[in-house]
Amino acid sequence: MIELIATVESIQQAQALLEAGVDVLCFGEDLFGLRLPMSFSRDEQKELTELAHRYGKKVNVAVNAIFHNEGIAKVPEYLQFLKSINVDMITVGDPGVVQIMKNPEYSIPYYYDAAVLVTSSRQVNFWAKRGAIGAVIAREIPRAEMEILASQVEVPIEVLVYGATCIHHSKRPLLQNYFNYIEKEESVEKKRGLFVSEPADEDSHYSIYQDINGTHIFANNDVSLAPYLLELSQMGVPQWKFDGVLTPGDNFVKVVQLFDNARKEIEAGTWTVEKSASLELQVRELHPEQRGLDAGFYILNPEDVK
């Protein structure tokens, strides 16, 4: 069965997403998770978990930051909290967290997410043998390689079907350093809507913001795999991720609902090429005007991916 996995920006949006068909809510707090639409308090994380469980759904909490010594020291207490509110699973990027979870006191089922490093079935299966119940596949995987990878993995894989892709992350406060250099006081938060462009391409629009984890730069275009859902299903990729970090509000919920309708038709065997094209047009209408949309690396020739 196909599962829909979506990030969350508020309690209200979480309920709307669950009613729109989402199977797994993804959230967390900035101290432990990267590029979240919202950093939730502990009380809010408990409320989100209870909400999902009332709907018979699951939660996956982001613990995918890469930790320095002072950060990893705070992880055990957070894992104990997550266990106490009965989260279903977490997403982990730092092997140090996996090491901590060898102690049953802190152990929680986890998905492995090392961003651009997760590019082969061997990488996925390596972590499966070390307890991972699934893996988040790098967003730079072309179709031809995805098909091979999906046929050889031992645990489910999660693939981005809609949302933004981070292309650079630095722990350094690059934006704040820049504004300090030019002697200006400016907001560096996501809501500011800052972007950088290439000198030779005025149309390039790389969104950039800074938070507690450093500086994040996103690809010029966001990803939509709306035209390729049937072949993803046929490959054995049943976990579809929706990342709303740069697509806020009701439109994100509406996009997810469109994909839920597509899922139902694929599972019923009534999905067609014409319906796929219509879905892509509808998603474009709901997508933020200031952001581009394409299939990302998915349709590229593997030889062209450097």
UniProtKB/TrEMBL annotation:
One Pfam family cited in the UniProt record for this chain: Peptidase_U32
The name this protein goes by in its record: Peptidase U32 collagenase domain-containing protein
Organism of derivation: Granulicatella elegans ATCC 700633
